[in-house]
Amino acid sequence: MNFSVLRFDTIDSTNTEAARQARLGADEGLCIVSKQQTSGRGRQGRKWTSPKDAGIYLSIVLRPKIETASLPLITLASAIAVHDVIKSLGLQPDIKWPNDVHDGSRKLAGILAEAGSSAGVVDHVVLGFGINICVAAYPADVGARATSIESELGRDVDRGLVLAECLAALSNRYGMLQSGAADGVIAAWRRRAAPHMDRPVEWDVDGGSRQGRAEDIDATGALLVRVDDQIVRVISGEVRWL
């Protein structure tokens, strides 16, 4: 994949700008990068805190040629890419379904994929990364759950190099999906998410919640949870690891 980059000092949301560019016809590989987001967002409409110069805030325009049912695999492929770059720096991260990269119990990075359509057909996906690079002042509720690469390593890292390596790793994993090698992506994700399998989980459904034990993912990236003697597919929503 060929990448081009639009850089900002401050922006409301890199995903919002990437989606706007996609609707205007931007080519696949356009990257929106900002030093700060004022309205960054994560899954379920949550705010993604984005202090200035403290992380990588990046969104990419993708125009995937894969079946709609397989689009969630883009999130999994992206999590693998970010995980592998962080691991190459000397940490031992893992992936928590579907889009978080953790070091132990604290989050290092999150991923948000948002599909856009024309005439009812998906014609682009905006893929956003938020990677915590250095120590920053987070709100108390975020600070209790988040950490950064530099604070865990105890040394500085080159943000530009981390960004470049994430793009290269993403290009490789995304290329696997485009070429029909989804099984390889799923297998790679399973290995990196292994610490969180066979753990109890809770998720919201029909105005209430259910609990079960996470077992695996299926060919579309849905989380498979055992509830008594049944396997339930969780395809979206908030999953809490107990």
Short overview:
By secondary structure, this protein is α+β, with helices and mostly antiparallel strands. The chain is 28% helix and 33% strand. The longest helix has 20 residues.
Coarse morphology = globular
Radius of gyration: 17 Å
Counting structural domains, the number is 2
Average pLDDT figure:
91
Order of helices and strands: EHEEHEEEEHHHHEEEEE
- Give the % helix: 25-40%
- Main CATH class of the largest domain: Alpha Beta
Total beta-strand segments: 12
Briefly note the structural class of the backbone. alpha+beta
- CATH architectural designation of the largest domain: 2-Layer Sandwich
Instruction: Please indicate the percent range of residues in DSSP E strands (runs of 2 or more).
Output: 25-35%
Quote the distance from N terminus to C terminus.
Answer: 39 Å
Question: Count of DSSP helices?
Answer: 6
In quaternary terms, these chains amount to single chain
Largest β sheet strand count, sense and barrel closure: 7 strands, mixed
Question: What is the name of the CATH superfamily of the largest domain?
Answer: Bira Bifunctional Protein, Domain 2
Provide the CATH topology of the largest domain. BirA Bifunctional Protein, domain 2
Unreliable parts = none
Q: What order do the strands of the largest sheet run in, or round the barrel if closed? A: 1-2-3-7-6-5-4
Can you walk me through this structure?
The protein is an alpha+beta fold and 242 residues long. It folds into two domains: 4-194, Bira Bifunctional Protein, Domain 2 (BirA Bifunctional Protein, domain 2, 2-Layer Sandwich), CATH 3.30.930; 197-241, SH3 type barrels. The chain is built from six helices and twelve strands. The termini are far apart.
